[in-house]
Amino acid sequence: MANDPNWQLPVVPTFELSSPEVKPGTYLPVWARATGAGGEDRSPTLSWSGAPAETKSYVVTMYDPDAPTGSGYWHWAVHDIPASITALPADAGNPESGLMPAGAKMIANEIRQERFQGAAPPAGHGDHRYFFTVSALNVARLELPAGCTPAVMGFVMRNSVIARAQFFALANTPAED
């Protein structure tokens, strides 16, 4: 697949990831778009099951490999989600909502905000895929450098990932959906 977000990542077992608001391969709801694209920057509900018993924490990300940057675009990254947590409610990516589980930490997205940034493909660029990924880790916490980016987080965690759950949803510019 073009722009495969898992290219060069270790092959690991999979588990289940779902959302009542976002069906894999369909368009994201308008509220899950960036405010500049007519949305509300609201993260969807995510639920997962079937992770290995050895899981000690989770990482959740949303990534657009189709962004015209040469390196994709990270919209959301959360690490140190306790292994006892198997869902994030809608709008958990808003730090003001208070819905993120205790101990979980968001790191800055591409616009350097520690929050969920909704989809916003450039006008005329066609469909973009937004990959929601939950990675099960064999460590309780990631030791990340200050100011860490999602790409650096991915590098730091790569040898700790024991399973991965993933789906993608689509977005286009509002007039093109």
Give the tags:
Phosphatidylethanolamine-binding Protein, 3-stranded antiparallel sheet, 177 residues, globular, mainly beta
Describe how the helices and strands are arranged.
Layout: E1 16-18, E2 46-49, E3 57-64, E4 73-82, E5 87-88, E6 105-106, E7 128-137, H1 150-157, E8 161-171
Antiparallel strand pairs: 1-2, 2-5, 3-4, 3-7, 4-6, 7-8
Strand order of the largest sheet: 6-4-3-7-8
Strand element count: 8
If you consult CATH, what is the topology? Phosphatidylethanolamine-binding Protein
The CATH architecture classification is Alpha-Beta Complex
Radius of gyration computed on alpha carbons: 15 Å
The biggest beta sheet is recorded as: 5 strands, antiparallel
Query: What is the structural class?
Result: mainly beta
First-last Cα distance: 22 Å
Q: Characterize the overall form.
A: globular
How much strand content do the residues show?
A: 25-35%
Contiguous uncertain segments of 5+ residues: none
| N-to-C SSE string, H for helix and E for strand | EEEEEEEHE
CATH superfamily: PEBP-like
Give the count of helical stretches.
1
What's the number of structural domains? 1
> Average pLDDT across residues?
95
Give the CATH level 1 class: Alpha Beta
- Helix proportion range: under 10%
